[in-house]
Amino acid sequence: MNGAESLVHTLLKSGVDTCFANPGTSEMHFVAALDRIPGMRCVLGLQENIVTGMADGYWRMSEKPAATLLHCGPGLANGLANLHNARRARSGIVNIVGDQATYHRPLDAQLTADTEGWARPVSGWVRTAMDAKRVGADAAVAVQAARTAPGQIATLILPADTAWNEGGEPAEALPVPPATTPDPHAVKTAARVLREKKNVLILLGGIGLRGEAQALAWRAAQATGQRVLAEMSNARVERGRGRLQLERVPYPVDMAIESLKWVEHLILVNAKAPVGFFAYPGKPSRHYPETAEVHVLSRYEEDGIAALQALVEELGAPEAAMPDPGPRPDPARGAPTPEGLARTLAALMPEGSIVADESVSFGRGFYKETHAAPPHDWLQITGGAIGCGMPLATGAAIGAGGQRRVINLQADGSAMYTLQSLWTQAREKLPVTTIILSNRKYQILIGEYQNVGANPGPTAMSMLDLGNPDLDWLRLAGGMGVEAARATTLEQCGDLLAQSCAQNAPFLIELVI
Amino acid sequence: MNGAESLVHTLLKSGVDTCFANPGTSEMHFVAALDRIPGMRCVLGLQENIVTGMADGYWRMSEKPAATLLHCGPGLANGLANLHNARRARSGIVNIVGDQATYHRPLDAQLTADTEGWARPVSGWVRTAMDAKRVGADAAVAVQAARTAPGQIATLILPADTAWNEGGEPAEALPVPPATTPDPHAVKTAARVLREKKNVLILLGGIGLRGEAQALAWRAAQATGQRVLAEMSNARVERGRGRLQLERVPYPVDMAIESLKWVEHLILVNAKAPVGFFAYPGKPSRHYPETAEVHVLSRYEEDGIAALQALVEELGAPEAAMPDPGPRPDPARGAPTPEGLARTLAALMPEGSIVADESVSFGRGFYKETHAAPPHDWLQITGGAIGCGMPLATGAAIGAGGQRRVINLQADGSAMYTLQSLWTQAREKLPVTTIILSNRKYQILIGEYQNVGANPGPTAMSMLDLGNPDLDWLRLAGGMGVEAARATTLEQCGDLLAQSCAQNAPFLIELVI
Fold first, then answer.
1. Computed from CA positions of residues A423, A429, A430, A434, in that sequence, does the dihedral angle turn out positive or negative?
2. Residue B453 pLDDT more than 80?
3. Which domains are assigned to chain B?
4. Would you call B25 and A278 a contact, using CB atoms and an 8 Å cutoff?
5. Which residues of A touch B161 (CB under 8 A)?
6. How far is CA A23 from CA A76, B413, B445, B446, in A?
7. Segment among A196-200, A351-355, A424-428, A444-448 with least mean pLDDT
8. N or C, which end of chain B is more exposed by having fewer CB within 10 Å?
9. Are B77 and A84 within 8 A, CB to CB?
10. CA B218 to CA A382: how far, in whole Å?
11. Mean pLDDT of B303-318
């Protein structure tokens, strides 16, 4: 058995049965091993940022890591942006990267690059295999690292000779350390602050955004008259009827500061105290008041649900009914607005839908109007690296077993980063409806430019405008095997959305906004 | 004057007047400065690997650096693969990357990443600006570094506050150190080896592949009865009538070893002794005989043309007429073959064409059949990171002033990495004819798989086949504003090529092979 075969056996023993891939020559022995050993579903992405973004979406919905298979050096580099997003989502990924044979590397052949150096900033764990005999053991540790709470990227670099040499030994799955239990002192402190102080905000992130956690946070807040909010960018929020009508910290700096100015105490549940996505001249970097006290109920690696359970018990907080979001809205009509699109979505999405949201500037109003939708999951771009939404939607569809409708709310400029995702959706016949929010410009940047103090002139617009020529999303989608149609009104968009949800296939709606 | 304005003024003073860009929020003050200060041509790429690949092509044809403008962290990461190729081409690029404000970085906002760490492996020079007052001086050093022979990537990281703070001071252009003059000892050694030894190969790379250098190398070889060859992957070769009928070291390992097995002495002119692109089990990593002696006539940073001139003088080698390549071929007919396509190209390409070659497996026979074409330049993928050809063609068209026809011989799998290039070609109305070599598979990898010892089974083919669904290149090109047509025979391809060369616009031919 060679090293590559021991790797595949070990991944399967460790419960990793899906591999998102774009291999090259140095990975051919691994490809051959995948071919010979049954049990791994291999999904091709036509560029590595599709591959890594799919692995992120897969984890978010399945809560288990997929493997990636990336080509040495530049292949990894192509996938770094979505690994960055995955790191910020705290997704677990077994990130397998081929490399030059150990003895070939010193010769500095054309494709030789600093694979390990590029991997390190996005990885919680990095190891370069150096011996076929140890590849199995290395892989078992990689899976363990990827699954260690809250989830992290474990990069295993596989020089070609460690794949092709004989002597591979499959390793058994290693135990996954359970999430750290909450600190009783932190629970007592949070309870005391909630009971005794005014203007306390419970800020939820990560696992704290699952429905169970929301219900517990709501009980704690109701019992003490305090408030609950979600972080700005979240890997996965369980939403819709039966969940909390949770709002997020807003993205625009002035709105964020305004929304948090009342806070005297901040209790963090698997969350981070809010800071700006970017700095702006003369504006604070931290978005909560300087005088606010920050209390950590649970850190990322801790079990936030257990922490909230302990908090509720410490408070003796009674059961509290979730607030009623009101009736399910009707689909909206007329010219597309963010609120209208959100109502259409709330009206028409099937129960159990997954929303992959890379709507950028257009999407800031979506949240509020979808509280009364059926239960669904909402996935966001977590690291700000655009080009996340389409691969995320693709991977989420696979992670959810292909049985749940994915609706990708997708800004056009960001879509052009990873449009190749559509081809994988067509090949795998995934139930993904992409709604391209087609404004034919980098609208968020035009807004940022205006913040700088002027309207963009011709040179600036040459870098901010996506017209000239206009992108034709119907042809782009059709070129990759995805059926598509254009909508200029919300009723057209709603009809196309409903129609696409009835088919077990991908579909793209270009919504002209 | 703010830091960003001092940066733009300094770039213009230093002769940098073209900026390939995809900015984000942290670069908005730089965008505003470009807007206010006339003189910089800004060219938008819809993903950063387009941006960096264009800057590479621009340098190869113009021999001066362009600036890039990339977004912090993940934006840079998206462009690393083509920076890797540019590094291997030894192209000069002033690689400007925005970043979080200096005081915001420690807060680890979502988009914060290890910008400097990612830049370092591809850069010859890296600096993070820390003060608006110093940005001008930093930029002048960056341009000097980019232009230092043979050319290198100089990465200047620009935290947002160093762009927006006042106190910027434009800096004057710094002198560019001339390429190091050749070592007289190396010249004497090379002359002695050429005169006294048998089986000597002069291997040309870099500047040694310009027409002038070829003529000198040919004189030296003719005077001593020795041979001349080019490296396998070259940034730019001047070719066609009046140039040497130069062959390259072959890519496949067995062919490379066979072609070099006679070599007893290797004289390197801005080249590297040949090693395999990859290692293969049981095959040597070095492709020249172990017993061969290696002599360096000129290193990368040295003036190879001056070194060859000195060599010719040392040898007292007489003028030598370039061998006649024979008559210009007629266009080929019938089913597409590599040789037939190359003959069609040689028959129809306008004088002064630029060939951007990312033909991968199909293109290995192109070189031999194009010696009798009119004078032209041939650009290759130098670092092996696929997705180079289309941005390279785009940037080369701009670097050549928009007056020369660029013909991009483009493998389909690689094309899907950076297809967004077509949009920039349409927007800038560039004279680029893309010939997609559409075999609907990663053919090179299927060959590599078979080398591993078997035919690929269904799982392997799920990662190596690009069918299911077939990519429709006419729709993909049309979706980005580029006219396109399909050819299934060489005469159709020839007709479309000739027609496209008569228009000052991009065109795409899907050649079904």
1. positive
2. no
3. 3-164 (3.40.50.970), 184-315 (3.40.50.1220), 338-512 (3.40.50.970)
4. yes
5. 279, 281
6. 11, 12, 8, 11
7. A444-448
8. N
9. yes
10. 59
11. 98
Who's near B258: CB < 8 A, 6+ residues apart? none
In this predicted model, what pLDDT tens digit does every residue of A437-467 receive, in sequence order? Answer: 999 999 999 999 998 777 899 999 999 999 9
| d(C-alpha A129, C-alpha B174), whole Å | 46
A404 Cβ partners below 8 Å, 6+ apart? A350, A352, A353, A354, A397, A431
Which of A111, A382, A421, A473 is most worth mutating to test chain B (most B CB atoms within 10 A of its CB)?
Answer: A111
| A390 CA: distance to closest CA in chain B (Å) | 15
- pLDDT recorded at residue A499: 98
- In this complex, do A281 and B164 lie within 8 Å of one another by their Cβ atoms? yes
Radius of gyration of chain A (CA): 23
φ, ψ of residue B292 to 5 degrees: the values are: -70, 145
The answer to whether residues A376 and A352 touch, using CB atoms and an 8 Å cutoff, is yes
In B, which residues are within 8 Å of A287 by CB distance? Answer: none
Q: Give the C-alpha separation, B322 to A222, whole Å.
A: 90
Determine whether the interchain pair B34/A459 forms a contact, defined as Cβ–Cβ distance below 8 Å.
yes
**Region of poorest pLDDT, from B25-34, B47-56, B175-184:** B175-184
The two structure tokens encoding residue B79 = 């462009």
Do the Cβ atoms of A47 and B160 come within 8 Å?
no
The beta strands (E) that lie in A140-254 are given as 153-159, 200-204, 227-230, 237-239
| B99-136: burial string, b at 16+ Cβ within 10 Å, e else | bbbbebbebebbbbbbbbebbebbbbbbbbbebbbbbb
B-chain residues near A469 (CB < 8 A): 423, 426-427, 480-481
Q: Which of A28, A29, A440 to mutate to test the interface with B (most CBs of B within 10 A)?
A: A28
* Per-residue confidence (pLDDT) for residue B362, from 0 to 100: 87
Query: Per the CB < 8 Å rule, is B25 touching A475?
Result: no
* Residue pair B124/B58 in contact by the 8 Å Cβ criterion: no
Per this entry, what is the length of chain B? Answer: 513
What number is the ipTM of this complex? 0.97
Question: Inter-chain contact B100–A472, Cβ cutoff 8 Å?
Answer: no
Q: Taking residues A260-282, what's their average pLDDT?
A: 97
Which residues in B212-239 are b (16+ Cβ under 10 Å) and which e?
A: ebbbbbbbbbbbbebebbbbbbbbbbbb
Mean pLDDT of A166-189: 95
Q: How many CB pairs under 8 A join A and B?
A: 307
Say how far apart CA B292 and CA B342 lie, in whole Å: 34
**Chain B closest CA to A90's CA: distance in Å?**
12
Measured between beta carbons, which residues in chain A are less than 8 angstroms from residue B413? 46
SS (H, E, C) B370-425: HCCCCCEEEEECCCCCCCCHHHHHHHHHHHCCCCCCEEEEEEHHHHCCCCCHHHHH
Note the pTM of the prediction, 2 decimals.
0.98
